[in-house]
């Protein structure tokens, strides 16, 4: 990156995924097709669960909120990324940059806490099934969801409080397609060693500890299911495996980006695409494809819509 001496700080230049025009058009087509096919599927999950009384259990309330969070998360950076494919001068204002970081970390942290709530839900369902309706009712679920959003907000506001104190007076090129902490800190006109340590502990170490905690939790649950005599053993195993898959695809890129020193690596942009665009929209779809009840409810709702449309015609 070329470092100049001019004073800036009101805007940043995004270098994007590629500077080659043909590659940009190809990537635009791929990402647009991905959104056209996957985003409606996530919206369908939300409407299906909300409109089917047979899916009123907290077990289905949590994946619905996962779909909602992921839709919001994927609305933070990809729209500008798609627009920038047709722009020669890819810039973002300082305020827009801070807003991107805030909402990315707010929704990302809230989703991490949601995955921990889903692990708690499976623990109660498998280990204390007779107390499930008492320990995991809708009121408790909404309280836990509120706590997840509050935790995400707290995490994000700490990030922003640290970043806005940094002076930016020189180079303003971000080697990515969106604003994020690792690249932005490197542009600060001051020693950022302490800031990097704070960010590493606030994002990287917390993410890594939550990941390890969830893996241990689901390993214990799988052992409990395998050694028990629960008649719904196969369904419980399938649900746990689904959650483990979601945990892996959510945490792996986040740990790669935030749980290491903030130095550039060759795969940074590729991992960022999976973290901010691909994986979030895939999470609810993976859960749906492995859940028989939601799939059946989706088909019932689609048939109802089709019959209603035919009657209207």
Care to describe what's here?
The protein is mainly alpha-helical and 313 residues long. It has one domain (11-312): Rhopdopsin 7-helix transmembrane proteins. It has helices spanning 21-51, 58-73, 78-84, 94-127, 132-135, 138-163, 181-185, 193-227, 233-258, 268-289, 292-312, and strands at 11-14, 91-93, 173-174.
Provide a compact summary of the structure.
The protein contains eleven helices and three strands; from the N terminus they run E-H-H-H-E-H-H-H-E-H-H-H-H-H. By secondary structure, it is mainly α.
CATH topology: Rhopdopsin 7-helix transmembrane proteins
CATH superfamily: Rhodopsin 7-helix transmembrane proteins
What distance lies between the first and last C-alpha atoms, to the nearest angstrom? 60 Å
Rg estimate, integer Å: 22 Å
Bulk shape? globular
- Strand proportion, as a percent range, falls in under 5%
The largest pleated sheet is described as: 3 strands, mixed
Number of helices: 11
Structural class: mainly alpha
At the first level of CATH, the class is Mainly Alpha
Number of strands: 3
CATH architecture: Up-down Bundle
Mean pLDDT: 85
Strand line-up in the sheet with most strands: 2-1-3
Task: Note the main attributes of this structure.
GPCR_Rhodpsn_7TM; globular; sensory transduction; Rhopdopsin 7-helix transmembrane proteins; 313 residues; three-stranded mixed sheet
